[in-house]
Amino acid sequence: MTDPLVNDTAVAFTETVDAFHYGAFHVVQPLGAGHRSGMDAMLLASLVAAPARVRVADLGAGAGAAGLAVASRLGEAEVTLVERSPLMAALAKKTLDLPQNARFKGRVQVLEADVGLTGQRRVSAGLADEVFDHVIMNPPFNDHADRRTPDPLKAEAHAMTEGLFDIWIRTAGAIMRPGGQLSLIARPQSIADIIAACGRRFGGIEITAIQPRRNESAVRILVTAIKQNRARLTLRAPLVIHEEDSHRFAGTVNDLNNGRTAYARLK
């Protein structure tokens, strides 16, 4: 399903309605501009393993795929999709208005706000102190100097600025309850920045490398940490996406990607 849309810089693109979790929910996404969600968002969502009602903030939510994946798997989760871009926030609101997503009404909301705000400005924007049990994020992952795309919407979604992890993780720590969980997906090159940003805010860091195949280098890392925890860092066994000599997803990865199970912490 497609529909033409023009953004506020007069750059025309097409929007699509894409199904996730075997059609359990749908997301309105830009085609030809901006960021489109896929497996990264689904793996990020799988990091929220909660048996009871929880409040979740999805920072830099885009059109809302990761946050909705959490809400889809956890029927009592309340999710706030936090997005700075007015255009992407509008797509997230359009996503929530889809009839296929009617079951999320009252449990998922879109908040147009800048993750980088601090103090009273952040609170005034709608991100109050210590209200969320989980904060998930998929921050921009490309070095700003490596940016090549002429699409400003995609550049904003993908280009990392100096100190980005410290800014985003600082906000996560501020809006999260003590003992709450931070979850993120990033490129392996960011591991040192992530650990440094967690600092004294978060401990019990668990890191999982994601490999396309068993003999290949990691392309992503999954990171979880607990606010005000002092446990040591743990490197978990790698998560291998594909079966040997095949393009088929490994069974565990397929279940994570489609909301059948969560990727729970070890401790």
Fold topology:
Layout: E1 2-6, E2 12-20, E3 25-31, H1 39-46, E4 55-59, H2 65-73, E5 78-83, H3 86-96, E6 108-112, H4 119-124, E7 132-137, E8 142-143, H5 152-158, E9 159-160, H6 164-175, E10 176-186, H7 191-198, E11 202-211, E12 220-227, E13 234-235, E14 239-240, H8 251-257
Parallel strand pairs: 4-5, 4-7, 5-6, 7-10, 8-9, 11-13, 11-14
Antiparallel strand pairs: 1-2, 2-3, 10-12, 11-12
Helix pairs in contact: 1-2, 6-7
Give an overview of the whole structure.
- There is one protein chain.
- The chain has 267 residues and is α/β, with parallel strands linked by helices.
- It has one domain (35-257): Rossmann fold.
- It contains eight helices and 14 strands.
- Strands 4, 5, 6, 7, 10, 11, 12, 13 and 14 form a nine-stranded mixed β-sheet that branches.
- It is globular and about 45 Å long.
Give a short overview.
The protein is of the alpha/beta class.
Name a few traits of the molecule.
267 residues; globular; single chain; three-stranded antiparallel β-sheet; 25% helix; Rossmann fold; alpha/beta; 14 strands; 8 helices; nine-stranded mixed β-sheet
